[in-house]
């Protein structure tokens, strides 16, 4: 558990440095996961006001709960990353990343990713890193 907390803190500190390019908006992000061969459920609109976002959608990718939110600016998206802890709730493993005006949050609510490989794989897709 301590490792998960340290991982979250480290990732939150690195978030402003994570930049990428690619498709714009939530639908583009969902398509990127599909294009990467991930198992993507149907995403549905969810209350964006709790994340202070312009628009949010929630669904699952590879059995992980995922929240994607779009913000009007990078600064407001940075605040959204901090709000992701409220969305993650009691999940012991979760993380949130920002790229431009999009925030990606993933939580292992079903505790199916004991070694963190799925969370790491989803992170790579969002950050658009090539598999090694």
Structural notes for this entry:
- By secondary structure, this protein is of the alpha+beta class.
- Helices cover 38% and strands 22% of the residues.
- The chain has one domain.
- It has helices at residues 2-14, 25-35, 74-88, 117-127, and strands at 44-46, 55-61, 64-70, 94-99, 102-107.
- It has a 5-stranded antiparallel β-sheet, with helices on both faces.
- The relative contact order is 0.19.
Topology, element by element:
Elements: H1 2-14, H2 25-35, E1 44-46, E2 55-61, E3 64-70, H3 74-88, E4 94-99, E5 102-107, H4 117-127
Antiparallel strand pairs: 1-2, 2-3, 3-5, 4-5
* Cα radius of gyration in angstroms: 13 Å
Beta strand %: 15-25%
Rounded mean pLDDT is 84
- What is the N-to-C order of secondary-structure elements (H for helix, E for strand)? HHEEEHEEH
Major sheet size, sense and barrel closure: 5 strands, antiparallel
Give the total of beta strands.
5
In angstroms, what separates the terminal alpha carbons?
Answer: 27 Å
Helix content: 25-40%
- Count of discrete alpha- or pi-helical segments spanning 4 or more residues: 4
Count of discrete domains: 1
Shape: globular
Query: If strands are numbered along the chain, what order do they take across the biggest sheet?
Result: 1-2-3-5-4
Outline the low-pLDDT stretches: 9-22
Structural class: alpha+beta
């Amino acid at each position: 558990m301590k490792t998960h907390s340290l991982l979250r803190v480290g990732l939150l500190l690195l978030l402003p440095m994570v930049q990428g390019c690619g498709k714009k908006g939530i639908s583009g992000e969902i398509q990127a996961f599909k294009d990467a061969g991930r198992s993507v459920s149907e995403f549905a609109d969810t209350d964006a006001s709790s994340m202070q976002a312009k628009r949010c959608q929630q669904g699952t990718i590879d059995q992980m709960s995922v929240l994607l939110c779009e913000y009007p600016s990078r600064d407001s998206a940075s605040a959204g990353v901090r709000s992701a802890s409220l969305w993650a709730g009691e999940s012991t493993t979760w993380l949130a990343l920002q790229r431009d005006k999009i925030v990606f949050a993933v939580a292992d609510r079903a505790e199916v990713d004991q070694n963190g490989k799925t969370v790491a794989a989803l992170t790579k897709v969002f950050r658009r890193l090539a598999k090694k």
